[in-house]
Design a protein that fits this description.
two-stranded antiparallel ribbon, Cytochrome Bc1 Complex, Chain D, domain 2, two-stranded antiparallel sheet, 221 residues
């Protein structure tokens, strides 16, 4: 095992060890969250809505995303570990309970009881297989890329390819006051790849069947 994978394993152990403590602090209420999403639906409630910063890309599907991951992501924007002016402006007005409630709402939003769980992802071509192995992507995101190994990691199967590409590049960004993501695991992974390779990974994952959706609010139908 190379030095990067050893470091990755150590970080995974540290993150997983911390999960039970953090997960018990605040319980989200999906019904309460439904009343707190007014600032979310203008982007995430419109199918195919495009953001324009730092480049044009579709905003991510978040209905069906794991609540613990959403809490982690929103908290990272609030703390500045993720930099994005619009998202920072929104989360600065949210309490920890608000974040937990919004996350619970979107995890449950549009889920159908008894819907089949995506199975092991179809293999890509040899180049994609080599990239996935190099990045150890299954270690966190699972064999289906829809059932992550720990709930703090995101479901990414079926996510928009252009969003995935921009997100992956953001982990390589350093020293930019308004854009970038500071995550030691994903930073170490993303920096191994060229942008062309990241785009190839994003296209592969986007084509997989997943549980993520963009469900339009009634006002946008």
């Amino acid at each position: 095992m190379n030095k990067f994978l050893l470091s990755l394993s150590a970080l995974l152990v540290a993150c997983v060890t911390a999960l039970p403590v953090n997960a018990q602090e605040i319980r989200g209420d999906a019904k309460a969250g439904e009343k707190k999403i007014a600032m979310c639906v203008g982007c995430h409630g419109i199918v195919g809505y495009h953001a324009s910063f730092p480049e044009v890309y579709r905003v991510p599907k978040i209905s069906g995303q794991g609540a613990k991951y959403i809490v982690s992501a929103l908290t990272a924007y609030q703390k500045g570990d993720r930099k994005h002016p619009s998202m920072r402006g929104i989360v600065d007005n949210l309490s920890e309970q608000d974040i937990a409630d919004v996350a619970a709402y979107y995890e449950a939003h549009g889920k159908q009881e008894g819907a089949p769980v995506p199975g092991k992802a179809a293999e890509g071509n040899a180049r994609v297989a080599a990239l996935l192995k190099k990045g150890a992507c299954i270690t966190c995101h699972g064999e289906s890329f829809s059932q992550p190994k720990e709930p703090i990691y995101p479901r990414i199967a079926g996510q928009y390819a252009d969003y995935l590409f921009v997100a992956l590049k953001s982990y390589k960004t350093e020293g930019n006051p308004t854009w970038g993501r500071g995550n030691p695991i994903m930073g170490g992974v993303a920096k191994q790849f060229s942008n062309d390779e990241l785009k190839e990974l994003a296209n592969y994952v986007s084509a997989l069947p997943g549980e993520l959706k963009t469900l339009p609010q009634s006002k946008f139908r």
